[in-house]
Amino acid sequence: MRMQFWKSAVEDIYRDDHSAQPISAELWRAVRKHTLTRRWMLRIISEREKDLEDKAYRNLRELEDYGENTQSSLLYLLLETLGVKNVHADHAASHIGKAQGILTCLRATPYNSSRRKVYLPMDICMLHGASQEDFIRGSRDQNVRDVIYDIASQAHVHLQHARSFSENVPHAAMPAFLQTVVLEDYLQRVRKADFDVFHPSLQKRNPMLPLQLYLRSWRKIY
To answer: What number is the average pLDDT over the span 42-57?
Structure first.
């Protein structure tokens, strides 16, 4: 019902018939001011509906598609809000969104496992002989680490691809891409933990993140 509400709300917004619901009203103002694309909003909602199925991703491609349809779609909307229309920025947003989708899944693994839920790609788990029960038990065996390594490596590849467009991405797009600082921070920390996703250090915040974000923002790099 919640998903249907937002689908209807988005359709109403683009018919210039928004409701009095506060978030819907603000979204209507944003659409009017920045000419936001309806397709990106509906794609986020449609992809989020799949969360209701409560199933693990069958393969890494499915997880990447989830990141593209949710995180990347949101980045496309942010770029429109910033007035950026640039194909290189769009390519970077696509890869950043996929990296963020992958790493969000990894970061949530300890929490989901504590609820006896495992969403990591099944093909990679099978490749390394790691069962869902291994994650539910919080196993720190090598085969579990190998699963995390493979998934994290794909996120790293997407992050590198995104940065390969940086010379051609307008400076105006940088505020939309600063989450790469957080993504890179998690990749570095999981690497230091030898890809043990249950390591206590990964549950702590990095107090240097605000400074790193400021420096990247000041240098206009992502």
So the answer is: 89
